[in-house]
Amino acid sequence: MHKNEETNFNVMFTSKLDHSLAPYWLWAGLRILFTVWPQSGYIHPDEFFQSVEVIAGDVFDIEVARPWEFNTTFPLRSIALPYLTAGIPLILIKILSPFLLLWFNWNLKTSYVLLITPRLVTCMLSFVSDYCLYKICKVYGQNYRTRLITFATSYVVLVYGTRTFSNTIEMTFTSLLLYFVADCMAHSDQVIQQEEFLSDKYKEADTPVERVKLYKIRSSLPSHSLSRCFALASITVLGTFNRPTFIAFAFPPIFFWLQRGLGSKIISLHDFHLRMLLFILSGVPTAVFLIMIDSFYYGYLTMGEIAMMKLGPDNLVVTPVNFIKYNMNSSNLAHHGLHPRYVHFLVNIPLLYNVLGVVGITAFLRIIYRGICKRWSDLPRVQSIVGLMTLSFLIPIGLLSLFPHQEARFLIPVTVPLVFLYAQRIRHIPSTECRQEQGKTNFFFVKGSQGSFLLSLWYFFNILMFGFFGFLHQGGVYNLANHFSEELTIKPRLTTIHLVTSHIYSMPLFLLQLRNSKRPLFSKQTGQRYRLARSFYSYEMGSDSLENVHHKLVSILKSCEESQTEKKLDYRLFVAVPASLLENFDKTVVNFNSSFSYSVSKVFYPHVSTEALPTLSFEDECHLENMNVRFCKAKQIYLAPLQYFSKLAHQFGLALLEMHKLAL
């Protein structure tokens, strides 16, 4: 092949690659793969305890740790959305499991299946955001390839997008709202432009025949004022019952839907008010339906009360109202942690989106600067797609910043607006993207691709954060639960297991599939009520000192010894601590001259607890060894790198220790 031909071939190949969606499909496949091959990382307890833990307890009648948000006295969480996303797949497992076990000897009720099935549903829902981003780009003639690849390579999508957070569902609803509103805006702009043109022609017409013809053409134009009204209202209500913070994310797109065409000759404030009224009325059926479901679930309402039409504030529960009441009290938020008001903008946005977040914050500062300088023409147009996306990025963050409790996951619904606006800044694409419409060029974006450096940083930080939150962060907790689910199936019948956890997140109990010992049962033979005996006890010590953990172990050990003496019940006592605390735990046991010893039962890798990070420096052991100090120092110099990295690596684990009573 000649040099010129080879150059032409390379140019053609590169051009095809630049316009191919193959990288996007690769990352989309990895999203599914890392859902089926489960990420062991554990971001926050809410990914289990605000959805799957509660629903699994209801569906399988197993013992779970039901969180306070789902109490019957003042419920803060609607049960409808968790049942749709987690309940339906778990019910299918419950129905299919006996048949598959009988016919093929396949046990579906394993900790692995219970973990990944709800995650798969959430993963599939995350692709709704991909589709909405693609459709918005198509409607406005934008480069969808750049945005889809940027979206798919974000660790927010790869990790948060596959976890059973209510925030992930919130992202899906936000994406749907943005797509429907963007489509309505484009459709309204087109119809209004045609209607204004025909109206002007009608006034200029000289003959009645020509006027009749123009009138008929104008009458045949499609309606647009109330497009998708019911769908938008229903999504807004569903999103609000899922998380009332959705109001902050829904406000910009709904406002843009209401004010479409204002300022034109066709649309007036009367249309704005009519849209608002019909939007509110369209949301009523969905709101009533969800209120009835929650009222039934929490025991406020019965079928008899409905038949007798006894409906009122006393037997109806509106969970979003309870949620807002609770969070308006800053003393309540103090139990969950208070943060400065700037944490969302200066910490959480860069943490979630790294260079893309920094670009977004920089663009926000530029908007403020142009506003101060009164350069109004340089600001995003109010009725443009850029105006919609800009406000959908800034307003929710601003509103959520008013509340002092600020977690990074609260912001993941702004992913689609952020990617749409600034993805081109970190990739090699033309310096401007424009759309030819009716012979007029509309420039939507600020000039400039920042080159391969920003793109390299984007991939580096996203891969790093994917590894940390996807596998390292609290990564041993799932393996710990999986281990005890197997231990409980093989343990002797009259043996109880006690587990004390320290410096790790709460272990989801639904993975253990414990028999429900809280529900009262009735014996037909004796006519008395009874409860099943518990076989597993867990004690969470949080970030308490190891001294307190030691005191707890002594107390449990004493109680277990008494039960063994009086009731002939055997026991096994375990403690789970990050491997980085093993040396300190050993020192604590020695210092207190404990009445028990321990052995390392198992270490689960990988695991990192930010509450007990691995130490980078180790104590000099030469003075502890019974050998010549000079020889010891020489040995350390020779083996130092290997020993150092070995000790460091062993700290990235979760150690399971079994306690043994010392013989007197």
UniProtKB/TrEMBL annotation:
GO terms for biological process: GPI anchor biosynthetic process. Pathway: Glycolipid biosynthesis; glycosylphosphatidylinositol-anchor biosynthesis. Keywords: Endoplasmic reticulum, Glycosyltransferase, GPI-anchor biosynthesis, Membrane, Transferase, Transmembrane, Transmembrane helix. One of its GO terms (molecular function) is alpha-1,2-mannosyltransferase activity. GO terms for cellular component: endoplasmic reticulum membrane. Its EC number is 2.4.1.-. Its main location: endoplasmic reticulum. It holds the Pfam family Glyco_transf_22. The chain crosses the membrane at residues 83-106, 112-134, 146-166, 230-256, 277-300, 342-365, 385-404, 453-474. It is a multi-pass membrane protein. It is found in: Endoplasmic reticulum membrane. It is an enzyme of class 2 (transferase). The keyword Transmembrane helix applies. InterPro entries: GPI_mannosylTrfase (IPR005599). Belongs to the glycosyltransferase 22 family. PIGZ subfamily. This is Mannosyltransferase. It comes from Timema bartmani.
